[in-house]
Amino acid sequence: MEREEAMLSASSMYYLQDIKMETIANHLHMSRSSVSRLLRDARESGLVEITLRPTPTRGPGLAKKIEACFGIETHVVPVADLADEAERLDHVARATAKIVTGWFDSDMIMGVAWGTTLAAIARHLGKKPTRGSAIVQLNGAANVRTSGVEYAGNLIARFGEAFDAQVHLFPVPAFFDFAETRNAMWSERSIVRVLEYQRRADIALFSIGAIAGEVPSHVYSAGYLETSDIQTLDKEGIVGDVCTIFLREDGTYEDLSMNARATGPTPEELRSIPRRICGVAGDNKVVPLLAALRAGAITDLVVDEQTATKLVEHVMQLKDGAASAEEIALQTDHSEPLVSSS
User: Sugar-binding domain location, by residue (predicted)?
Assistant: First the structure.
């Protein structure tokens, strides 16, 4: 009877009150391993029954459609229908952190951008010691109001700590005032060293920047752009950015004036990195995400179910007289992608 009572007490505290094993052990005056055995016996005896009731999800079907359309690996994260955008972001950040931790290993280089989503991913990183690895910042962070160094530096340092990796910061502004200044800085040896690490990266990790939304992108909400810059974005039809390189909805970016002053890698430069992971959550990210996919910037997409649904719906609605290749891909199954990501 004493053991059954102990099993009941331990199980109630662990499963119903969400109390940690160490606390339960102290309360019952026993070791943590004894509590673990009580919980095991409670399950085996039928005192505790664990039932999984997965909620219906469209994730696998959505992932298959996006993969067929754009030729990328897609991980659709199930979230509750009533989840707000902050919750959706947290779920995507957790999933992305887990995936990145599994992929990154010794003697590898990972390029990391900064922003709201990347900060969330950094908070969910687990510890995975590696040897001979490096983390390199992909785009500058300083602006006219703050140095940006502390914000980006802390974020990149969190990745370095998680993997015991060497950290290489990128000590330049997010945007130069003049394209000529940027071009001159790209000849400086200290900058060339960081750019070389970026080019040698095995993995690039970034998100999508959106101009507005419930959870605004850091580049648009933290003083990186002047009023005149925002007006230029609107005039040139820009819908968002990847690593502070601005994109139109059709994925073009080469002739945009703001990009001549930006410090992040272009989609073309990103394509030299074998694995390019993008974590995305939020309705406001749908259009810029499509732009990034069309630009071929992404090889692996981690996206919440609602955003994935809206992406598919948006592509289906883009009718210009006849169905586009993207629309056809979303309506049929293909063994080969119609839109290449490289």
Answer: 62-312
CA–CA gap between residue 165 and residue 270 (Å, rounded): 21
Integer-rounded Cα Rg, in Å, for the chain is 23
pTM above threshold 0.85: no
Q: Are residues 29 and 76 in the same domain?
A: no
d(Cα 83, Cα 80) in Å, to the nearest integer?
A: 5
Q: Is 177 exposed, middle or buried (0-12, 13-18, 19+ CB in 10 A)?
A: exposed
Query: Measured between alpha carbons, how far is 253 from 248 in angstroms, rounded to an integer?
Result: 6
Domain of 118, in residue numbers: 59-331
Whether 8 and 146 map to the same domain: the answer is no
Q: For 71, left (φ over 0), alpha (ψ -120 to 50), or beta?
A: left
Q: At 149, which amino acid appears?
A: V
Distance CA 57, CA 187 (A): 51
In a domain, 54, yes or no: no
Tell me the two tokens of residue 148: 């940006």
Q: Tens digits of per-residue pLDDT, 223-277?
A: 677 777 778 878 888 999 999 999 999 999 999 988 999 999 999 999 999 999 9
Domain shared by 176 and 315, yes or no: yes
What are the phi and psi torsion angles at 277 (to 5°)? Answer: -100, 130
